[in-house]
Write a structure and sequence with these properties.
Elements lengths: L1 E6 L1 E2 L5 H13 L6 E3 L11 H6 L7 H13 L2 E10 L5 E8 L5 E6 L10 H4 L8 E3 L4 E6 L6 H9 L4 E5 L7 H15 L2 E5 L2 E4 L2 E2 L5 E3 L5 E4 L5 E6 L3 H9 L11 E2 L2 E2 L1
Parallel strand pairs: 1-3, 2-11, 3-4, 8-9, 9-10
Antiparallel strand pairs: 1-15, 4-5, 5-6, 7-8, 10-13, 11-12, 13-14, 16-17
Helix pairs in contact: 1-3
Family: Belongs to the carbon-nitrogen hydrolase superfamily. NIT1/NIT2 family.
Keywords: Hydrolase
GO molecular function: hydrolase activity
Length: about 270
C-alpha cells in the first residue's frame, strides 16, 4: 500500500479559496498512491482562531465538494485533513473527512481532545464524542487529530475497534516538535500499528509549524520523515506487518484491564 502525506504550507497571504484549489491539484498528482493524507485545518491554519467562525462550513460544504472531486479524479482514498465544521446545532467542530476513491464520504471524525487550556480551540469548538475507524481494502484506519496524540487511551480504543493504521492530521507547533516525533513513535510501538502523522508547514497566525510529517511502522521504525517545508512524503507500507508484529510479540494480549486504585477503577 502506498501512502502519501501532503505537508501543506499555510501562507497567510494565500486565500482559502486559492489554497483549496492548489491542494486539490496536489491530490490529483498522487494517482500512484492508494491513500493520501492532508493536515489539520489546512484551509485556515490551526492557530488562526479568528478565521474559524468566518471560514466555517457545513460538513458537505465547499471543501467537501472540492476534496471529493479530487479523490475521485485521482482514484485514491483521501483523508482530507480537517475543516472548521459548522454543525447543525450551530456549534463549531474540528472535523476530519475521509473519502473513498469514488469520491464518497467514507467517514468523518470530530476531534475529541481540543487544544488551548481553556482558550483558543478548547473554547471555540465543541468536542467530538466518538472514536472512528474505516475499513480500506488493505487495512483498517483509526482516525485522530493533532492534540489527540497525547492521549494514549484514544488510540487503545481505536485498536480495540480494529484499527491497524493510525492516521493523524495535525497543525503541530515547531516549539514542541520533539514531542511530535516521540509520541508518534510511542503510539506505533504500544499499539503495534502503523502511524501516519501529517502536519503542516509555514506559520499559522504567527505560530511556526513543525512540519516533519512522519510514517512509523509497528516496531517503531521510522519509514519516512519530511522536512520543515511544504513536501509530499510518500512511503510504501506492507499492511501484513501489523498482524506479523502482533503475532511475534503479542504484548497486546497481556493487557490488564479493570485495575483499581483507592476510590475506584482506573
Amino acid at each position: 500500500m502506498r501512502a502519501s502525506l501532503i505537508q501543506v504550507a499555510v501562507d497567510e497571504g494565500e486565500s482559502v479559496q486559492d489554497r483549496r484549489a492548489r491542494v486539490a491539484a496536489l491530490v490529483r498528482e498522487r494517482r500512484d498512491s492508494d491513500l493520501v493524507v492532508l493536515p489539520e485545518l489546512w484551509t485556515t491554519g490551526a492557530f488562526a482562531y479568528d478565521l474559524f467562525d468566518t471560514e466555517s462550513e457545513p460538513l458537505r460544504g465547499t471543501t467537501y465538494d472540492v476534496m471529493a472531486d479530487a479523490a475521485r479524479d485521482a482514484g485514491v482514498w483521501l483523508h482530507a485533513g480537517s475543516i472548521p465544521e459548522r454543525g447543525s446545532d450551530g456549534s463549531l467542530y474540528n472535523t476530519s473527512l475521509l473519502f473513498s476513491p469514488s469520491g464518497g464520504l467514507a467517514a468523518s471524525y470530530r476531534k475529541i481532545h481540543r487544544f488551548g487550556f481553556d482558550k483558543g480551540e478548547a473554547v471555540l469548538m465543541g468536542a467530538g464524542q466518538a472514536l472512528v475507524t474505516a475499513a480500506l481494502p488493505e487495512t483498517v484506519l483509526g482516525l485522530a487529530t493533532c492534540y489527540d496524540l497525547r492521549f494514549p487511551e484514544l488510540f487503545r480504543g481505536l485498536v480495540d475497534a480494529g484499527a491497524e493504521t493510525l492516521v493523524l492530521s495535525a497543525g503541530w507547533p515547531e516549539r514542541r516538535r520533539s514531542h511530535w516525533t516521540l509520541l508518534a513513535q510511542a503510539r506505533a510501538v504500544e499499539n503495534q500499528s502503523f502511524v501516519l502523522a501529517c502536519g503542516t508547514a509555514g506559520t499559522h497566525a504567527g505560530v511556526p509549524q513543525a512540519g516533519h510529517s512522519i510514517v512509523v511502522d509497528p516496531w517503531g521504525e521510522v519509514l519516512g520523515e519530511a522536512g520543515a517545508d511544504e513536501e509530499v512524503l510518500t512511503v510504501d507500507l506492507d499492511p501484513a506487518k501489523v498482524a506479523q508484529t502482533r503475532e511475534v510479540f503479542p504484548a497486546l494480549k497481556d493487557r490488564q484491564l479493570g485495575l483499581t486504585v483507592p476510590g475506584g477503577a482506573v
